[in-house]
Amino acid sequence: MDIKPKDESRFFSKVDTTDADGCHVWTSWTATTGYGQFHLNGTTEYAHRVSYEISKGSIPEGMVVRHSNNCTTRGCVNPDHLLIGTHADNMRDRDEAGRTPRGESSGASKLKKVEVLDIRKRAAVGESQTSIAKDYEVETSTISAIVRRKTWRHIP
């Protein structure tokens, strides 16, 4: 990124540093994921990446800027809360902090928790997985994975 002094000034005008947790909260445009967006040299960049580059220097090729485990604010651009790491590091952070989307919150789920509970109950009393799959308009393999707790493991 080529960040000029005028870009830095414009960037910091969109940051609120009064958060009680020490986060520097992005106050401008955000993606639907909650991460700040900043227009720079004709492209859209993640605000936390811009903050890292302004404060700490270039991001090495193939690396990501991730939030420290004690910072759960996606819109935070405080350089003290930002770390360099691999994509795998970032996913591990997400999982360890319990931020992994599961079940109906994953966005890809066709089923809801109440339906998963019903599927398991119906299978437990001997109803065929093929019949259950037909009712829910999913593949039999989907029903099998739910019943064997290969998916929806977080639901007792």
Structure keywords:
single chain, about 160 residues, alpha+beta, two-stranded antiparallel ribbon, two-stranded antiparallel sheet
In words, what does this structure look like?
The protein is α+β, with helices and mostly antiparallel strands. α5 packs across α6. It is 36% helix and 13% strand.
Protein structure class = alpha+beta
Mean pLDDT: 90
Sequence of strands across the biggest β-sheet: 1-2
Distance between the termini: 47 Å
Strand residue percentage: 5-15%
What ranges have pLDDT less than 50 throughout 5 or more consecutive residues? none
CA radius of gyration is 22 Å
Order of helices and strands: HEEEEHEEHHHH
**Total number of β-strand segments?**
6
Helix content: 25-40%
Helical stretch tally: 6
Shape: elongated
Largest sheet descriptor: 2 strands, antiparallel
Summarize the structure.
With about 160 residues, the chain is α+β, with helices and mostly antiparallel strands.
What topology does this entry show?
Elements (H helix, E strand, L loop, with lengths): L4 H8 L2 E2 L8 E2 L10 E4 L2 E4 H10 L7 E4 L14 E4 L1 H10 L16 H12 L4 H8 L3 H8 L9
Antiparallel strand pairs: 1-2, 3-4, 5-6
